[in-house]
Design goal:
Structural class: alpha+beta
Oligomer: single chain
Distance between the termini: 36 Å
CATH class of the largest domain: Alpha Beta
CATH architecture of the largest domain: 3-Layer(aba) Sandwich
Bound molecules: 4'-deoxy-4'-aminopyridoxal-5'-phosphate
Radius of gyration: 21 Å
Strand content: 5-15%
Shape: globular
Number of strands: 12
């Protein structure tokens, strides 16, 4: 039962792993944009497992492909080849502009960024890496040095990042990234775009976040949405940078590019294309931004509504003049009330004052209407 789960959690799972809600949700099942708890209550999942379930929970096509591969071959390691890896590499490379054509397959966003840092250093002969204030690039020893948001903050030297996510979906001003890339390159540096959250069509207008800023990175890292929840990640770079790394070390990764991950990755790409999910992100995302933005006019505590495609941040403030963050307990209560009404959203920003909205890309307009109504009710309840 539920209480036993809590006991086991307390006894055997690390206290650094925190859960949302005073009474954490115990989820049993998922179907597309919906999640179901032990009692069978359903929740509209507007955070998709932290921006990861890109095409929907247990998507039938992805499941069918995974099941087929499960019965055929799970693992070979990178020293033996298998067809799903080569089929996947070809499909993924076709989605990136020239000269980004060389792929390294790994297992998580942190690993992808670690590898990107190695490549950048090997190629440029520079040690220093710059990331943005408020960035999140992982929790491994080196990526922690780039991560600089809320409780993840660590004072360590830190890569040029490219992510509006954990810090509450903060967007770069127009032209900013272009200029930043020029400054880095003028000093012999290379530019890394972390597309862990922004990639795979989520932003709607473009497949990759960097394209929305009209820049061309030297290295691109990706994870989360790439496998719809299956652990996989990738780094893509130019042949030149890949050669520089090969001169320094032989890169080895036991699970990277395993047959399950590659088969699933291919299925995800096919579903995004067949079901026009990037176009859906654009259309439903634009609709959603407008609907949530109305709440800013209706409630003093909604300080900002921002974002692009299916990646939206709603920043809660004490009032629109001071823009001080709404106290955490109050944001927690609104979060909890949304859950009670069947809506799951994420959290972000230094004081956890921003709600993060990033549903699976199969989301529909009526579901957005439901989510906005739930959110409006939670805010109204709060003001009473
Ligand atoms: N980069 C970004 C932009 C992320 O949001 C995250 C995870 N939140 C990571 C990297 C690290 O990915 P992982 O948790 O798979 O290591």
């Amino acid at each position: 039962g539920y209480n036993r789960v809590l006991e086991i959690h307390k006894e055997h799972l690390s206290p650094v792993v925190t859960a949302y809600f005073q009474k954490p949700l115990l989820l049993h099942q998922g179907h597309m944009e919906w999640l179901f708890d032990a009692e069978g209550s359903r929740y509209l999942d507007f955070f998709s497992g932290i921006v990861t379930v890109s095409v929907g929970h247990c998507h039938p096509k992805v499941n069918a492909v995974a099941q087929k591969q499960l019965g055929r071959l799970w693992h070979t390691s990178t020293v033996f080849f298998h067809p799903p890896m080569h089929e996947y590499a070809e499909k993924l490379a076709a989605l990136l502009p020239e000269p980004l054509k060389v792929i390294f397959l790994v297992n998580s966003g942190s690993e992808a960024n670690e590898l990107a840092m190695l490549m950048a250093r090997a190629h440029s002969n520079n040690i220093d890496i710059i990331s943005f204030r408020g960035a999140y690039h992982g929790c491994s020893p080196y990526t922690l040095g780039l991560t600089n948001v809320g409780t993840y903050k660590m004072e360590l030297p830190g890569g040029t990042g490219c992510q509006p996510g954990v810090n509450g979906v903060v967007q770069y001003p127009k032209g900013f990234l272009k200029e930043a890339f020029e400054l880095v390159r003028a000093r012999g540096g290379v530019c890394i775009a972390d597309e862990v959250q922004t990639g795979f069509g989520r932003l709607g207008s473009h497949f990759w976040g960097f394209q929305t800023h009209d820049v061309l990175p030297d290295i691109v890292t990706m994870a989360k949405g790439i496998g719809n929840g299956f652990p996989m990640a990738a780094v893509i770079t130019t042949p030149e940078i890949a050669k520089s790394l090969a001169k320094c070390l032989q890169h080895f990764n036991t699970f990277g590019g395993n047959p399950m991950a590659c088969a699933i990755g291919s299925a995800v790409l096919e579903v995004i294309k067949e079901e026009n999910l990037q176009e859906n992100s654009q259309e439903v995302g634009t609709y959603m931004l407008l609907k949530f933005a109305k709440l800013r006019d209706e409630f003093e505590i909604v300080g900002d509504v921002r974002g692009k495609g299916l990646m939206i941040g709603i920043e809660m403030v004490q009032d629109k003049i001071s823009c001080r963050p709404l106290p955490r307990e109050e944001v927690n209560q609104i979060h909890e009330d949304c859950k009670h009404m069947g809506l799951l959203v994420g959290r972000g920003s230094i004081f956890s004052q921003t709600f993060r909205i990033a549903p699976s890309m199969c989301i529909t307009k009526p579901e957005v209407d439901f989510a906005v109504e739930v959110f409006r009710s939670a805010l109204t309840q709060h003001m009473e």
